[in-house]
Amino acid sequence: MNPIRSRTTRAIAVAFVAGSLALTGCSEGSKDKKDDKTVGQENAKEQQEALTFATAEESTGPAEPVKGAQQGGTLTVYSQDDVSHLDPGQIYVSDAGLLSTILHRGLTANRVNNDGTKQVAGDLATDTGLTEDGGKTWKYTLKDGITDEDGDPITSKDVRHTFERQFAPFITDGPSYIQQWLAGSGTDYRKALPDGPFKGKHLPDTILETPDDKTVIFHLQSAQPDFPQALAMAGYAIVPEKKDTKEKYDKAPKALGPYKIGEYKPGKSLTLVKNDKWDPATDSVRRQMVDKFYIEFNHDPGDIDKHIMSDRGVDQAAIAFTGGIDTSNVPTVTKDKAMMARTIQGYQPYVWQLNMNMDRIKDKKVRDAITYAIPNGELVRIDGGSYGGEIAGGLLAPTLPGFEAKYDPFNKLKKPTGDIEKAKQLLKEAGKVGMELKYAYANTPIRQEQAVVIENALTEAGFKVSKQEKDQATWYEQMGKIKNGLDLYMTGWGQDWASPGTVIPPSYDGTQIQDGASNYSHINDPKVNSEIKRISAITDPAKASDEWNKLHHYIVEQVNPAVPLYFTKQFMIQGSKVGGAEYNSFTSYYDWNKLYVKK
Amino acid sequence: MLQFLLRRTIGALVILLLISAVTFVIFFQLPGDPAYLSCGKNCGPAQIDLIHRNLGLDESIPVQYWEFMKGIFVGRTFEIGQCDAPCLGVSFHSREMVWDTIVDRFPTTLSLTVGGFVVFLVVGLGTGMIAAWKKGTLIDKGFSSLSLVLSSFQIYFLGPIVMGLVVWNHGWLDAPKYFPITDGVGKWFLGLLIPWLVMSTIFTAQYTRLMRSTMIEQLQEEHVRTARAKGMSRVYVFFRYATRGAMIPIVTILGMDLSGLLGGAIVTELTFSLAGIGRLAVESVTNIDLPLTMGVMLVGATFILLLNVVVDAAYAYIDPRVRLG
Amino acid sequence: MTTLTKTEGVPAQSDGGDPFLSVRDLRVHFSTEDGLVKAVDGLSFDLEKGRTLGIVGESGSGKSVTNLSILGLHNPEFANITGQITLDGQELIGAREKTLERLRGNKMAMIFQDPLTALSPFYTVGRQIAEPYMKHTGASKKEARARAIEMLDKVGIPQPKTRVDDYPHQFSGGMRQRAMIAMALVCNPELIIADEPTTALDVTVQAQILDLLKDLQQEFGSAIIFITHDLGVIADMADDIMVMYGGRAVERGTRNEVLHAPRHPYSWGLLSSMPRLTSDVNEKLSPIPGTPPSLLNPPTGCPFHPRCGFTDEVPDGRCASERPELEPGRAAACHLTADQKQTFFIEQIKPRLV
């Protein structure tokens, strides 16, 4: 999921914002903190376990039942903002991604089993896909008895349509992995079908083949072992051909999942009701327990907490949509055992880093000096403390396979207050004492507070820092400009699925430097570039993972384009009558397919 | 009268035209390109160009302005459907017709402002009158010092306190929520009661003080004394003569406070999680949503201009000296 | 109020029976932050029906305060009023508000100085005239309106049937004063208090208004208290004259007595300071030197003594130590002997008045 250019990100940021207060004034909390950290590490351990591909048998419905589950009831959901999109083709952001887990279905789907293991399973397809050439060609067979909410059967034509409409000009928000794999990198793929399928043209069989109603064959330009995981993205859920209303589909999509849209009042509320055309026998991922999800927008984070903390009336069966507990309320919640029992926690896939613009800071010793100087512990404290995040030693999140908890080349974990002496020494060696750094930060309370800490540390290390405050709403747009004229700025990035292949290429590929792209440090290292190309072609996931981690080490230690700052964590609270509340690391929110209302 | 209306209408149209042009120009001067907000992870210049085309941002600014303004009178056609006049375009962000969105949110803001208005007018003027009637007594002193204290109770300060007390801690009332009045007057009333009281507190306090001092001033007017000399009772003179005279400065201040009231509605909507025009205005700016910003600005300005006409009419009603022709 | 203060003399009793209006030892004191203001300090006078009493004096001499006391329009919270005011046998001081309300605008009415501010800008002239009529006679709206038109006609407003619906701002100054008079007279009051009713008007209009008042008085036989600082107007209107200074009456007498043989140096001053048509333009007026006395801290003895040119004529400095009394009847409150008063006026003052 994309944490970057969305209101939801802002909501997340805001959720952690007021956090400066959290846990700092709480001196006796050290013991609690430790406990919490252990829990966090366990979470991490669990979350970093490589996911497996479910077999055809495991992909058959119904899903394993949730313990103690009860039927019926309405679940009230509070959200700050309306859902960004409902058209699967436009879904990349985590809020819409969360909804799509009960609304939409794709060829494959992610699932967390009752024992905590994570799998990609065949969803509309019988399995996660067959490939006989190491991942270049993928074949899928549709399950029987799958219909949309109107009861119309889903065929391979609908699958073809789903992928072809991704080429239409109005689809701009969604992921583009598969389009690129099918028809060309960057935005070149659009040339293959400039109008999408809407003017009678289609992708040739050499790209996308549908030999019969049940079979779909993807012919990729290169081997992509992660193809089943990409297919599980919300953006690739099926849009039935006959029901496609193009731009209008975003407000009234047809559901294939257990819930459909009952009533949608844009900007105000969204009610999801049971889709009686959904057949549990076809679905190994989803369940249909509550009668209704009533999602109400326009609730600020603090307000959502108050509703759920008060635990009265409908709020007893209420959850937050995507908002974590506001940092101002964290102390109240953590001190109250009963309330703590109503919370979930887990790692989000996001890593905050301090980008060093390599067009401007060319000397690695200077970059290392900056890296040593930054007091990560302080930055975490400001952004919500141990419930909001955890110091990062490297640039890959705990949610990725092969995560090394002890990886700490710059002593970030050992010295959370920073290593000023080392920084001073490096800066002296580089002969750049007094070097001026243009440091930009967003105009939110957290970033402003963090800016002071960073400025002080760098000044102490011997830099001359000039701070520039920038508008939060357009932060990534401003940082994304190649000629941004800045030296240092914080950005966050998250994986699209549990593979460093969705993190390293977009962030560190030097061939991808352009306005708006996400290589914010402008790292353009020949070895990194060639390694990205090489590892992307490795078809064995375990081997690829190893190689990515080696490249990660090289990037961090030999190039050092960005200071690793911290991983973010999710901390949410639900009403006392919410059952099956569980953190789902795919969505980084509640697992909506497990929620039920206690009577 | 007709001439007056005509003059006012033309004036209002000129003002609206100016506001729209200024808003439009300012929007393009601000940093931030809305295309980046729907650019996905695969963002690049080509993608941005595509989104600019989708949003109609590829045209020159004057052409875009012309299209927008034309749409208000003759409507426009978008991919998501026909947008009938008065068409305020389609929101960049929600891809909804701006007019429909505003029509949907307006009742909330209207209920909020009108309700708050009634509260502070009735309570504020009422206590002000009582204080003036009982000038110098304990009641007067009590009201006066209370209003002095309350006049610094900002919405964002008082709101959470009242919510904490009335809603979260004791559950005396449900959290504020807007129900259409057609759902039942009681539901509508209870849903907005807290916001009304909170948003009108400062106004109530200010108008208590204003009303008290104006009434005391009015009671010393010679024509009020004349009325007493005619044998009219103190109560009669208080209400018929002094109050009437006091309404003139009150209406003047009211005219100036109208936009403040609308501003209060914005803060109130944010404080109590209500979906009205105010919240829409804030969202439109954070989302760099030109059509929505324009729509909210124009509707808000029209609303204020209309209210100003009402204020002028109230003037004419209260004071025959300004009555026209 | 101190016990040392002697009360003014009682006016000469008219032949037989109680006077229509009788004011005895009226004191109106206001408590202010600076101290006690003795706006009226022991005033007595009588007024018969059909007669006009002119009250003259500078601003702050207590003229208006006296008349507001008769109507009972002072706020009892701030004004301390003692003494007696009897109207047609009814005691007004201390009377209940309801009682006073029934009398105001009905048995006693007041014509105020500035009709622009004294009429409400918010209601039509007709309504303002009709209001007290409805209240006091219980007339219907229609009857009251007819009465208002009748009254407007009587005070000389042209086209009263249409003007009745006009607002005061649509009237000229003179018409407004006429409307004011119509309003005061709508219930045929037996006592009319006219507080400088012509000051704001130009001379020709002033004459018309005065004629109107006289005509109306003749028609209804009302008693009039006419307050002014304009001796010319007094000469035209009043039967009796009372000269007030510093919250007290200093001279009392008939019109002729006071105007042609005044006995108080303050009255001489007033007469000398009045311009005359016959006088030489080059001749200087002789204004009274000094300023009106402070009511907070009045001078000892005769309140006029700091401004009086004749204190040396009184032995033992009595002017500064002893307050002169106003004897009953035709009198002046001054320590000069009767001969002195006559001699000084004839020798020193009169020549300048010609």
Q: What does this protein look like?
A:
- The complex is a heterotrimer of chains A (599), B (325) and C (354).
- By secondary structure, chain A is an alpha/beta fold.
- Helices cover 28% and strands 19% of the residues of chain A.
- In chain A, a hairpin with a 2-residue loop joins strand 6 and strand 7.
- In chain A, helix 12 crosses helix 13.
- The longest helix of chain A has 19 residues.
- Chain A starts with 6 loop residues before the first helix and ends with a strand.
- Chain B has two domains: 97 residues, no CATH class; 214 residues, MetI-like (MetI-like fold, Orthogonal Bundle).
- A two-stranded antiparallel sheet of chain B has the order 1-2.
- In chain B, a hairpin with a 2-residue loop joins strand 1 and strand 2.
- Chain C is built from 13 helices and eleven strands.
- Chains in contact: A-B, B-C.
- At the A-B interface, helix 7 and helix 14 of A face helix 2, helix 4, helix 6 and helix 10 of B.
Helices and strands, with pairings:
The complex is a heterotrimer of chains A (599), B (325) and C (354).
Chain A: H1 7-17, H2 30-48, E1 52-53, E2 74-78, H3 94-103, E3 108-112, E4 118-122, E5 137-141, H4 156-164, H5 177-183, E6 208-212, E7 215-219, H6 227-231, E8 259-265, E9 269-274, E10 292-296, H7 301-310, E11 318-320, H8 330-335, H9 337-340, E12 343-356, H10 364-373, H11 376-382, E13 389-391, H12 420-430, E14 436-442, H13 445-461, E15 464-470, H14 475-479, E16 488-494, H15 504-508, H16 526-536, H17 541-559, E17 562-573, E18 578-579, E19 583-584, E20 589-590, E21 596-597
Parallel strand pairs in A: 1-4, 2-10, 2-11, 14-15, 14-16
Antiparallel strand pairs in A: 3-4, 5-7, 6-7, 8-9, 9-10, 12-16, 12-17, 13-17, 18-21, 19-20
Helix pairs in contact in A: 10-12, 12-13, 16-17
Chain B: H1 2-29, H2 45-55, H3 61-74, E1 76-78, E2 81-83, H4 98-133, H5 138-150, H6 155-169, H7 185-219, H8 222-229, H9 234-271, H10 277-286, H11 290-318
Antiparallel strand pairs in B: 1-2
Chain C: E1 21-32, E2 35-47, E3 52-56, H1 63-71, E4 79-87, E5 90-91, H2 97-103, E6 108-111, H3 115-118, H4 125-137, H5 141-154, H6 160-163, H7 173-185, E7 191-195, H8 203-220, E8 223-228, H9 231-237, E9 240-245, E10 248-254, H10 255-260, H11 265-272, H12 318-321, E11 331-332, H13 338-353
Parallel strand pairs in C: 3-8, 3-9, 6-7, 7-8
Antiparallel strand pairs in C: 1-2, 1-4, 4-5, 9-10, 10-11
Helix pairs in contact in C: 4-5, 4-7, 5-7, 7-8, 11-13
